[in-house]
Design goal:
8 strands; six-stranded antiparallel sheet; 10 helices; binds zinc ion; elongated; two-stranded antiparallel ribbon; 337 residues; alpha+beta; 29% helix; single chain
């Protein structure tokens, strides 16, 4: 599923529409009361981890740049937000296919992820009746995406030879004449963005101390990295790549690793995610070091395994046994006379 940087890019696509009033609602979604969005004003757009949140309020409500009339949280993102204007234009015109991380998934990774998508299904959240703003949460499945001012076109014929364009889940036409199209995403009403910016790797409010404490738990490091409570927006690609960059075996116990190793892992997590986002905004792809690879950049044979907590999701890991030796093995070698 799209990881943090992809969802952040989606958010930047929606940002230019904030302040505009919805003139027409379309799409195949059966989510309740979506038609109510008509004549409401898009008030805010936030990416939090792997979720996109859009806030809608009464059109009569004054909308001022940077002002928030509701208790909805306002997250300031000076570095990333600076890219918004530059990024939005080119993104609007981009004709790219599926998200790059999706198209490069192996069949095995596909089936694992698809299973998780089903298992992850969240029941509908209650309608946001209490607030001035109504929040919609978008969760993107494997092929989820957003387009601005254009529809996605079929890039190949289906099995029967028909060229059928993808059916949008939701289409929002705005009074300006522009429109947003949402594909393959789950849409729910919610009260407000639920994820804490302190755990969002792409947020300036990301709390390193809290993340470090989580990494030091006596559990396999690759499980902690995918725990969205601590690393919101960090997905399987980022996990594999940063473990390789930090030279850490995915099954290393966090409590056995040196603090300097964990600090380095954290640095790579933030740096890799930020670089990925910037690449996306520039329309560039990502070159993987280890994810889906047979050899590491140094030419060593890469191992592959499916790991996860006993009662949690299992995800595929790629690692190089030479560049990323298991901590316990290192310890044993050190103790040997
Ligand atoms: Zn290697």
């Amino acid at each position: 599923m799209p990881e943090g940087p992809s969802v952040k890019r989606f958010q930047l696509l929606t940002a230019p529409f904030v302040g505009q009033v919805v003139a027409k609602v379309g799409g195949s979604s059966r989510q309740r009361n979506l038609k109510d969005l008509k004549a409401m004003r898009l008030q805010d757009s936030q990416a939090s981890g792997k979720n996109l949140f859009l806030a809608f309020g009464a059109a009569l409500e004054a909308w001022t740049m940077g002002g928030s009339p509701s208790p909805g949280p306002v997250e300031e993102e000076p570095t990333i937000q600076g890219e918004a204007d530059r990024g939005a234009c080119s993104l609007t015109l981009s004709q790219e296919g599926q998200e790059d991380e999706v198209s490069q998934l192996s069949p095995k990774e596909h089936s694992v992820q698809r299973k998780q998508e089903t298992e992850c299904s969240v029941p509908d959240a209650a309608d946001a009746a209490g607030g001035i703003w109504k929040w919609l949460r978008f969760h993107f499945g494997l092929f989820g995406s957003i387009r601005a001012n254009e529809f996605s076109r079929a890039n190949k014929a289906n099995k029967r030879g028909d060229w059928k364009d993808p059916v949008p889940r939701l289409v929002l036409n705005f009074d300006s004449g522009g429109f947003l199209v949402f594909y393959n995403c789950r849409i729910h009403w919610c009260t407000s963005p639920a994820v804490e910016p302190a755990s969002d790797i792409l947020s300036p409010k990301f709390h390193r101390g809290q993340a470090l404490a989580a990494l030091r738990q006596p559990t396999s490091i690759c499980y902690t990295l995918l725990d969205q409570r601590y690393f919101s927006g960090l997905g399987n690609i980022i996990k594999n790549e940063i473990l390789y960059l930090a030279r850490i075996h995915p099954l290393s116990q966090g409590s056995l690793l040196a603090l300097s190793d964990l600090e380095s892992l954290l640095d790579h997590a933030v740096q890799f995610s930020t670089d990925w986002l910037h690449k996306k905004l520039a329309g560039k792809g990502l070159h993987y070091q280890i994810y889906l690879k047979e050899k590491c950049p140094l030419g060593h044979e890469v191992m592959q395994g499916t790991f996860g907590p006993r009662d949690g999701f299992k995800r595929l890991s790629w690692w190089c046994p030479q560049c990323q030796p298991l901590q316990e093995l290192l310890e044993q070698r050190r103790l040997q006379p």
